[in-house]
Specification:
Order of helices and strands: HEEEHHE
Number of strands: 4
Strand order of the largest sheet: 1-2-3-4
Mean pLDDT: 87
Distance between the termini: 26 Å
Low-confidence stretches: 95-99
Largest sheet: 4 strands, mixed
Radius of gyration: 14 Å
Shape: globular
Helix content: 25-40%
Length: 102
Amino acid sequence: MGTKMSRPMSIYELLALHKIVYDKYSPVNPTRGHPCVKYMDPVIDMRYGTIIGVNMRSFGGSSTHFHVMNESRDLKESLFDRIKTWLETPRNTDEQQQPQSA
């Protein structure tokens, strides 16, 4: 049995992620010690109707990009699960300001 590919996100998962971000991690409802997402940019593969990447942008121009391509294609966790883990993992204020790629 081969390695499970990192699964893209469905449009329904994107809607669920939008609700999670808006309710807990947006400037409207920030959670202290967690990312505050000002903009969420999905990358939609129109051949299949799936989300293959999401860029999470915060204040001050910092951003974290999640995707299922290249170095991320062999990850066992789905795109949705990786983003949820990133949001739910507490961090200090200094780490929030650093641009990252995941």
